[in-house]
Design a protein that fits this description.
The complex is a heterodimer of chains A (248) and B (314). With 248 residues, chain A is α/β, with parallel strands linked by helices. Chain A is built from 6 helices and 13 strands. Chain A has one domain: HUPs (Rossmann fold), CATH 3.40.50.620. In chain B, helix 3 packs across helix 4 and helix 5 packs parallel to helix 9. The chains are: A alpha/beta (248), B alpha/beta (314). Strand 12 of chain A pairs antiparallel with strand 10 of chain B.
């Protein structure tokens, strides 16, 4: 079985995002970029399945500008067999990303596609579900446990009510939640090895994907700030303040 | 004139309060009609509840065996069929809505607006990105249906009671897949208020220290009639089950009172509580980031302070 993994580059989760004063975007110049944390988890899961002998090949996929190569090398250093780089200077929305993945799925015929449940930049939480719909295959979103056997995935999903278990025939799309696994750290020798692993580049335009952006971002604003609060000295004062506010 | 289809969320034959919040967002569009669609194997009681929500024009039911559990692959083709003639499809941004809505959008070939926090016009919405550290205004193309998930913490539940909208069964000619099957739902059974909709929430973090120590959080929550939540760190450490997680990737909540105990306040956690009325932080580290957004802060040892608080409440 082959596994495709979505591997998006985003602003590092530790960066405090600043909105540009003119409202045209957020400041990204000079900020640290990293793999989307959910995508590291997706890649880790794919690698573990390969290590268990359940998959032969793990392919990381990135959609982005020419300099995305260095990021994809990290995925290769972590252990992916090869990478596919769909080259476009433009940011793509989830529906476009799903259409790109569908094209790659048709070409690569994977048994499993594992994506992060959301990217921590746009927080859209859409691409995996959209790919599953376009592909007409099962989706198992927000996975915290994945078991593969007999052509099926049994997936435990983190849902608002608790843990839901579903069974999905392969091929299928799985999206990862935080507790699925803890991604491994990249070791120096692996970085060296990754340099010789293949990265296929595909021009976005050559895929003939409809990239008509169906919504347009017109303005960015900083969120309303909560005003600085007060400190109380002890339990009794806290209770009295809360009682005054009618909260207790 | 806009016409909005709201997809009802329900569990165990009961309507989830998130549905009435999505109806509020629908009302903000000032549409000609708001219809609620209930997909279930037994829609009756759920539809009756939905019909009481203020602003609902009609309740439509899609009742069939396959709808016994909310599988996105099974529900989405039906919702996509039902969406014909509607300008908007709204779904609560809960794990239910986040799972099913994008599948509907893709079937309809339209983009989705996730986590709508404000409606600025029939096709103009505000939504958070970067864990709520930036808010964007987006324009959707009026030539297509708008599929959106509604950030429930941003919307009050539409009033419930006076309305009695007509309930009509809907016959949807959709071929349903069998490639995805429900196995089981492991629910934490609790008599405490529901975390997502509670007026008061008491949350514990890493500072609580262990699963056993978390009893002190439960005890205090019960004392004031609050739901219990937790930070990601507390869930990761196994102190409490995943459904208690509050934050960017957990539940986004807006209680009147939120008490964070032993939670340092990572931005991912703060994202989940920004809309709370009053935030109280109790932490032994006076420099903890939680104090930057707390309305009331108390520095000290939670194991000493919680019993004192209980006593002071009386």
């Amino acid at each position: 079985m082959k596994i495709l993994v979505g591997y998006k580059r985003v602003v590092d989760y530790n960066v405090r995002i600043q909105v540009k004063p003119d409202g045209t975007g957020v400041v990204t110049d000079g900020v640290k970029l990293s793999a989307n944390p959910f995508d590291d988890i997706a890649l880790e899961e794919a690698l573990r399945l390969r290590e268990k002998g359940l998959a032969e090949e793990v392919v990381v996929v990135g959609i982005g500008p020419a300099d995305l190569t260095a990021h994809l090398r990290n995925g290769l250093a972590m252990g992916a067999n090869r990478a596919i780089h769909v080259v476009t200077p433009d940011a793509v929305q989830p529906l476009t990303a799903a259409r790109v993945f569908l094209k790659l799925v048709e070409k690569e015929q994977p048994g499993l596609v594992i994506l992060g449940k959301q990217a921590i930049d746009d927080d859209a939480n859409q691409t995996g579900q959209m790919l599953a719909a376009l592909w007409d295959r099962p989706q198992a979103t927000f996975a915290s446990k994945v078991e593969i056997a007999e052509g099926k995935a049994t997936v435990t999903r983190e849902v608002d009510a608790g843990l839901e278990v579903i069974e999905a025939d392969l091929p299928a799309v799985i999206t990862t939640d935080l507790r699925l696994n803890e991604p491994r750290f990249i070791k120096l020798p692996d970085i060296m090895k990754a340099k010789s692993k293949p990265i296929d580049t595909i021009e976005f335009a050559s895929l003939s994907v409809d990239a008509h952006d169906q919504f347009r971002t017109t303005h960015y604003t900083a969120p309303a700030k909560r005003s600085k609060g007060v400190m109380v000295k002890d339990a009794a004062e806290l209770v009295s303040v809360l009682k005054q506010k009618g909260l207790l | 004139m806009s016409k909005i289809l709201v997809i009802a969320e329900h569990l165990d034959g009961k309507l989830n309060p998130s549905t009435a919040r999505a109806v509020s967002a629908a009302a903000a569009v000032k549409p000609g009609a708001i219809d609620v669609l209930v997909l279930s194997d037994k829609a009756g009681a759920i539809a009756t509840e939905a019909a009481k929500i203020q602003g609902v024009s009609r309740v439509l039911t899609a009742e069939r065996m396959e709808n016994a559990h909310p599988l996105a692959a099974v529900l989405a083709p039906q919702i996509a069929k039902a969406a014909a003639g509607y300008s908007h499809v709204f779904v609560p941004s809960t794990t239910f809505g986040k799972d099913v809505a994008p599948r509907v959008a893709a079937l309809l070939g339209v983009a989705q607006v996730s986590d709508v926090m404000s409606v600025d016009g029939s096709h103009t919405f505000k939504r958070p990105i970067y864990a709520g550290n930036a808010i964007i205004t987006v324009d959707a193309d009026p030539a297509h249906a708008v599929v959106a998930t509604i950030r429930t913490a941003s919307w009050p539940a539409a009033a419930n009671g006076e309305n009695s909208a007509p309930i009509e069964p809907l016959s949807l000619d959709a071929t349903l897949p069998t490639h995805t099957r429900f196995v089981e739902l492991k629910q934490g059974k609790s008599d405490r208020p529901d975390l997502q909709s509670a007026n008061k929430v008491v949350s514990g973090g890493r500072g609580v220290g262990s699963k056993e120590n978390f009893e002190i959080i439960y005890k205090f929550a019960d004392k004031i009639g609050a739901a219990v939540g937790a930070s990601r760190a507390a869930v990761d450490a196994g102190y409490v089950p995943n459904e208690l997680q509050v934050g960017q990737t957990g539940k986004i909540i807006a209680p009147e009172l939120y008490i964070a105990i032993g939670i340092s306040g990572a931005i991912q956690h703060l994202t989940g509580i920004k809309d709370a009325g009053t935030i109280v932080a109790i932490n032994k580290d006076g420099e903890a980031p939680i104090f930057e957004i707390a309305d009331i802060g108390l520095v000290g040892d939670l194991f000493k302070l919680l019993p004192e608080l209980e006593q002071a409440i009386g």
